[in-house]
Specification:
about 30% strand, about 130 residues, globular
Length: about 130
């Protein structure tokens, strides 16, 4: 097993240099697990922020040979759980296959005051990618 921590050059860069956006755990058979740090995005509405987060996650996964279809687990942090339907509508446009395991939490605030949502995922990358 080999672990690589990464901020891929072709993806949006983190808001802080104090963390890595992706941890890749590569297995001997060539498969890997990707742990993507919580991501936030700019936008005036929850839908805009959600869309931006999924676009960022897609770019981070692509840098490691994966897609949103490879996501096996997702954790979502919302500052207002009443907005869950708005988020769910965006999520359904990005995660179109079999739904991953999922947890959604309401939190009083996120590390940036304007952030209304933060999402972290785990993806499984098959051997050969």
């Amino acid at each position: 097993m080999q672990i690589t921590l990464d901020n891929p050059a072709g993806a949006p860069q983190p808001f802080s240099p104090l963390y890595s956006q992706v941890a890749r755990v590569a297995h001997a058979d060539g498969s890997a697990l990707l742990f993507v740090s919580g991501q936030i995005a700019a936008g005036a509405t929850l839908a805009e922020q959600s869309r931006g987060v999924f676009e960022t996650i897609a770019a981070l996964l692509a840098a490691h040979g994966a897609t949103l279809a490879d996501v096996i687990s997702i954790r979502t942090y919302l500052t207002d759980i009443a907005e869950l339907p708005e988020y769910a509508a965006v999520r359904q446009r990005f995660l179109t296959g079999t739904p991953p395991t999922s947890m959604t939490f309401e939190v009083p605030r996120l590390f940036r005051p304007e952030a209304r949502i933060e999402i972290e995922v785990v993806a499984a990358v098959p051997a050969g990618l």
